[in-house]
Amino acid sequence: MMPAMPSPDTRPILVVDDDPKIVALVRTYLERERYPVITAGDGRAAIRAIEEDDPRLVVLDLMLPEIDGMAVIRRARASGDTPILVLSARGSVGDRILGLSEGADDYLPKPFSPAELVVRVRSILRRVESAAAPASPPLLVLGDLELDAARHQARVAGAPVALTALEVRLLEALLLADGRVLDRDALLDVLYGHGEGDVTDRAIDVYVKRLREKLGDDPAAPRFVATVRGAGYRAAGPVERRERPA
Q1: How far apart are CA 183 and CA 68, in angstroms?
Q2: What CATH number was assigned to the domain covering residues 13-132?
Q3: CA-to-CA distance for 239 and 99, rounded, in angstroms?
Q4: Counting Cβ atoms within 10 Å, is residue 36 exposed (0-12), middle (13-18) or buried (19+)?
Q5: Which DSSP state fits 17?
Q6: Which of 42, 124, 204, 237 minimizes the number of CB atoms within 10 Å of its CB?
Q7: Residue 177 in contact with residue 234, Cβ under 8 Å?
Q8: Domain ranges of the chain
Q9: Do residues 43 and 60 lie in contact, with contact meaning Cβ atoms separated by under 8 Å?
């Protein structure tokens, strides 16, 4: 069977690792799938490449010279929403949750299967590009929160809020449920699909915490995301669906 062709987006995938053998391996497998690839060997070079080359996706090791991978994720998230796949020997559940909570889209521990890496890359790009595809979903409004998921835009009291692609999907799922409680397994399915993502349901609590912080939502008196103890999460009030502006 022929490999799936990548979409016409010609931006490169950035591979960041200080081990030349890992870089060469990842590059070989991605280029077989016809993805253009650029590389960086340390955190400083990675940040420069993210800012100057606008990569389509970043495959990022965490243990880097100059600036570590977590700092690279934070810097990338401060300036944009480039998808990030963490590739690291730090494979404990705690490390995975930390990487994902900082804004990574997926986490693949070393040693890894190059074929699985390609599948993860395809999956991330499919999710991101599907979210960015032309569509006309409604503008979701809860109090002074507005979410335009198709345009990856959120506002609170008219002020823009920078959310990652994962956070947009999480918030959209809660708002579309319109008061119905979503348990952690259901939210994991929304974020990763059935069986995707090497994360536990505890990660949902981390994602919700970060989402609340960005929205300025107090969990003790929630305006947007309410906790239903022992069950999951729901929108904290009635959600209005409006026509998206042209």
Answers
A1: 34
A2: 3.40.50.2300
A3: 31
A4: middle
A5: -
A6: 237
A7: yes
A8: 13-132, 139-242
A9: no
Contact 59, 117 (CB under 8 A): yes
Full-model pTM = 0.55
* Fold of the domain built from segment(s) 139-242: Arc Repressor Mutant, subunit A (1.10.10)
Q: Which residue has the tokens 């999480």?
A: 170
Please report, in tens digits, the pLDDT of each residue of the chain (246 residues total): 344 444 557 789 999 999 999 999 999 999 999 999 999 999 999 999 998 888 999 999 999 999 999 999 999 988 788 999 998 876 556 667 777 778 888 888 888 899 999 999 998 988 877 665 555 568 999 999 999 988 889 999 999 999 988 899 999 999 998 789 999 888 887 787 644 445 566 788 999 999 999 999 999 999 999 999 989 999 999 999 887 766
Query: Assign residue 34 a region: left if phi > 0, alpha if psi is -120 to 50, beta otherwise?
Result: left
User: How far is the C-alpha of 206 from the C-alpha of 199, rounded, in Å?
Assistant: 11
Cα dihedral: 15, 19, 20, 21 (round 10) = -100
Residue 97 contacts residue 158 (beta carbons within 8 Å)? no
Instruction: Write out the two tokens for 222.
Output: 């929630």
